[in-house]
Amino acid sequence: MSEKLFSTADREAIVNAIRSAEVSTSGEIQVHIESRCKVEVLDRAVKVFDTLKMHQTKDRNGVLFYLAVVDKRFAILGDKGINEVVPEDFWEKIKEHMAGLFKQGQFTQGLIDGIHMAGEQLGTHFPYQGDSDINELPDEISFGS
Fold it and tell me: Matching InterPro entries, A to Z (predicted)?
């Protein structure tokens, strides 16, 4: 069901944003989209983060964008490595920017902007490592119910 919330073009644009953001960083970005979130949104994001094995990146620099579209709830969750180096209000600034676009119904653009903003910080703190840098997590969007 949640896969139908975004067109093929929207999904491709989001995946392209992930790939573009990851070009300059060893960090990993994933997007998980569901229709509903029946628990506290951060609790659900932590569970998804764990399910997607995002905590297993070498530098603990994974970032999850979790979105429950029907319930209009979302969270951004960074792993330990990235959280230790970004400014304290970093995730909140991204969330505020994304929320403004979401309120206008611009979910795809909100995700793309958030991904690029996170990618900039990942690139600053976890630069691309050349040939030794592997894509540790899939770039494709994961979907829940």
Answer: TPM_dom (IPR007621)
